User: Which sequence fits this backbone?
């Protein structure tokens, strides 16, 4: 059987890519069609982690020599293929260009999973040099990879049109989700002490890009109509944000809650949830809110999980949400618009039939994105590329 090395951040590092890779590799291992997964862990600067035995080597993000040593290690090994879980900011150098050193040195087939794909003229590029380096990195990844997997058709189109990547080299495989049962909210609410509340939730690592302040500002008028409403903001501050600015964003949100007299209607859970806790809170959720402020985002584990649980989602129209919530699988609101969020909440809370219809469509679509199905698609791709 094939042996695959996965290059990625990995649990217990608090990072969306780490969570994705742990879910993916454990799901692939359960299929028993490949050798047990081996991880090359990416460490952020100044950090070390108590990894499990599946992590066979570590790369220091800002140490280019560790990328070279990792490539030499893989080349000498019995690995048949390398899967790189790519996100900008995960690898060292401008736009993660240290990764190119690693890829060029490998003599094994490479599949790169690109979690973010940006248009070349995106606002995030503040200088021509930055844009040029980003383009060089994306093209370098494409040149070195036997295949690139993305999670949306939009990401595939961007790679084809903006970076001239051959369509045949791009595979669209959705973000995975746990296999949730479709259950009423009351039992989970009782277990969590939330009986009698209409529960809204947002979860994930906190940063200003989440736009949670706009969801909070949407609540005062809704609370007048639904005084039992409770908005749960679940998750720790993103470790990199915490390093640079501490808990500044969370404190600003808390001050906003106090100023709007929403202390009885907003609750912060400053914890990184276990998988079981995450499922329990989602099952207790009546409406999931995703008020991201950046259009360019092309994947979101939180939105995927909420959809998989059959939750009605109110989200800003970033690229991933536009595609995932199409055909009435959710409600799209305007960017940075509390009024638009409150309008969406009214549509769901004042119209139980519409809410139930969206829940049904969301859950049905989510069944095509469960981790066993996603893992099977990755395993099939790996086998295809090595035959």
Assistant:
């Amino acid at each position: 059987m094939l042996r695959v090395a996965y290059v990625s951040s990995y649990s217990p590092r608090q990072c969306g890519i780490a969570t994705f890779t742990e879910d993916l590799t454990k799901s692939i291992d359960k299929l028993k069609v490949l050798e047990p997964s081996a991880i090359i862990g990416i460490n952020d600067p100044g950090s070390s982690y108590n990894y499990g035995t599946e992590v066979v080597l570590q790369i220091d993000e800002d140490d280019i020599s560790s990328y070279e040593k990792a490539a030499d290690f893989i080349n000498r090994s019995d690995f048949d293929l390398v899967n790189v879980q790519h996100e900008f900011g995960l690898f060292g150098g401008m736009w993660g260009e240290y990764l190119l050193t690693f890829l060029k040195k490998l003599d094994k087939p490479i599949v790169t999973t690109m979690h973010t794909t940006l248009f070349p003229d995106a606002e995030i590029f503040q200088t021509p040099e930055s844009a040029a380096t980003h383009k060089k990195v994306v093209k370098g990844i494409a040149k070195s990879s036997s295949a690139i997997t993305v999670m949306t058709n939009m990401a595939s189109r961007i790679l084809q049109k903006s970076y001239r990547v051959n369509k045949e080299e791009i595979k669209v495989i959705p973000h995975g989700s746990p296999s949730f049962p479709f259950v009423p909210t009351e039992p989970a609410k009782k277990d969590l002490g939330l009986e009698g509340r209409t529960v809204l939730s947002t979860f994930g690592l906190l940063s200003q890009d989440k736009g949670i302040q706009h969801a909070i500002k949407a609540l005062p008028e809704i609370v007048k109509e639904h005084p039992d409403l409770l908005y749960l903001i679940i998750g720790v501050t993103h470790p990199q944000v915490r390093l640079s600015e501490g808990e500044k964003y969370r404190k600003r949100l808390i001050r906003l809650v106090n100023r709007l007299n929403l202390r009885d209607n907003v609750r912060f859970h400053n914890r990184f949830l276990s998988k079981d806790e995450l499922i329990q809170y989602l099952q207790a959720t009546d409406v999931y809110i995703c008020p991201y402020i950046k259009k360019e985002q092309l994947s979101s584990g939180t939105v995927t999980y909420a959809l998989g649980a059959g939750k009605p989602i109110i989200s800003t129209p970033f690229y991933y949400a536009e595609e995932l919530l199409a055909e009435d699988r959710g409600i799209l609101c305007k960017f940075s618009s509390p009024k638009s969020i409150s309008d969406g909440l009214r549509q769901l809370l004042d119209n139980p039939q519409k809410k139930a219809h969206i829940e049904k469509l969301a859950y049905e679509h989510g069944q095509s994105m469960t981790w066993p199905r996603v893992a099977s698609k990755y395993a099939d791709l790996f086998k295809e590329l090595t035959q």
